[in-house]
Amino acid sequence: MTPLTRFALTATLLMTAASGIAQGPPGRDPYNPPPGHGGVPPGQAKKQGYGNMPPGQAKKYDRQNDNWRFRDEDRDHFYSHYRRDADRWRGKKRPKFARGYAIPQGYYIRPVPRSYWQGVPPPPPGYQYGYYDGYVVSYDPTTRIIADVLDLVSAATQR
Fold first, then answer.
1. Is residue 111 part of a domain?
2. pLDDT(55) > 90
3. pLDDT of res. 87
4. CATH no. for residue 121?
5. What would you report as the CA-atom Rg of the chain, rounded to the nearest whole angstrom?
6. C-alpha of 106 from chain center
7. Out of 8, 33, 81, 129, which could bridge 112 as a Cys pair, Cβ 3.0 to 4.6 Å?
């Protein structure tokens, strides 16, 4: 190789490297990737946490353990559904408990659930609290005479 050829080849290589032609088209720098979605289609790139998962699979994955969730947008639906059900049911098939009357023998009065005890004073001596079909009653367990009644279903569905 002659010195002139060597000089021409060296000069060409230096100018090529300095001008950026050797690095490829603009934006292909491995240290500064071009803006975009990195090979993921635009609709999928916006999804957070699913990577390159197709949209149908992402929905399936999202709804997989949904049986325990109670979302804010469902509150109105559940409230109106149970309100209608309680309005339809209120007073239809429930016994009428009133102060001074006896509890019929066929009714089994259960102990009041713990969640209802908060803030309730103890029953009068010789009486106890019981729960039956939406009622909390204070009654004498020997005679089954009702001293006081609280209708929880009517209290919860008052408009």
1. yes
2. no
3. 61
4. 3.10.450.160
5. 39
6. 41
7. 129
Structure confidence at residue 143 (pLDDT):
92
For the cut 90, the answer to whether the pLDDT of residue 140 exceeds it is yes
Place of tokens 């029953």: 123
- Number of compact structural domains in the chain: 1
Which pLDDT tens digit goes with each residue over 31-47?
665 566 566 666 555 55
Looking at the domain assignment, is residue 6 inside a domain?
no
Non-local CB neighbours of 102 within 8 Å, separated by 6+ positions: 143, 144, 145, 146
Structural domain harbouring 87: 81-159
Q: What is the mean pLDDT of residues 91-103?
A: 78
CA separation for the pair 103, 101 (Å, rounded): 7
Position 55 in a domain: no
- Can you give the pTM of this predicted structure? 0.40
- Computed over every residue of the chain, the mean pLDDT equals 69
